[in-house]
Every structure is written in structure tokens, then in C-alpha cells.
């Protein structure tokens, strides 16, 4: 990890004159920001879109669009999508990403944090620890109605 961090700092110095914020200034497209993050050693699509999503969601960085900011599929997203009936039991991460794109075409990554929160707080792996009654998706969730 230290090598990845070192190379990232070197790349920021080389490509962005030492100013990381130049990766996202001037209201670039979301695809351009994700592409720029993909240029960093060790950053794949999940990390690149997660970084763009954090910038947009948490730091209110403006992009010209948000449709290339995908959901970052993790165990919570898979579990929540599965229990809500939004994916097949053996769906690939790519299928989940495209389902999120279909549900929120303008900004698929918008679904990331809510799924993480639902999965962490209510939609537990252990059936005995699930709290469907407190989840704000319980009226729509086939698993909660069982």
C-alpha cells in the first residue's frame, strides 16, 4: 500500500502540478473524473467510482453529469439488492451495476450509501439480527414480508 500511495503522490506532482484538486476542477464529466482516477496505480473501477462518488456526495464537487459514477458493489449492496428482489441470487457485480444504472440513470452511485446504511444497520447477514421493522424499505422488501 505504501508503494501505491508513493506512486499516487508522484503522479499528482507530475500530472497535476502537486494539486490533487485539479483532478476534478473545471466541472469535468463524471467519466473524465473516473478515468483520471483509473490512471492511478492500484485503482480499479470500484475505487475510481467510489472516489468520484465521495467527491460528489460528501464534498459537493460539481461534475457536468453524474451518470458515470456507478454504485460500488460490496456485501451490503449485494445483500440489499438481493433481499429487495433487484438481482438474481448469483448475479455478477456487473449485473448489479447495470441494475443501479437502470434504477437511477442520471446518478447510479446515489444508491451506494443508502444500500450500505441499510445493510449495516438493518439488513444483517444473520437472519436473527435483521431489523426489518425499523428499515425504511420494509414496505417494499419481499424479504421483510416473509
Radius of gyration: 17 Å
Find the count of extended strands (DSSP E, 2+ residues): 0
Query: In whole angstroms, how far apart are the ends?
Result: 44 Å
Return the string of H and E elements. Answer: HHHHHH
Shape: elongated
**Which class best fits the helix and strand makeup?**
mainly alpha
Largest sheet entry: none
Write down the domain tally: 2
Calculate the mean pLDDT score and round it: 95
Uncertain segments = none
Give the fraction of residues assigned to helices. Answer: 40-55%
* Residue share in β-strands: under 5%
DSSP helical segment count: 6
Describe the model:
The protein has 146 residues and is mostly helical. The chain folds into two domains: 2-58, no CATH class; 75-134, no CATH class. Helices cover 47% and strands 0% of the residues. It contains six helices and no strands. The longest helix is centred in the first third of the chain and has 15 residues, at 2-16.
In short:
This protein is mostly helical and 146 residues long. It has helices at residues 2-16, 30-38, 45-58, 75-83, 93-103, 112-121.
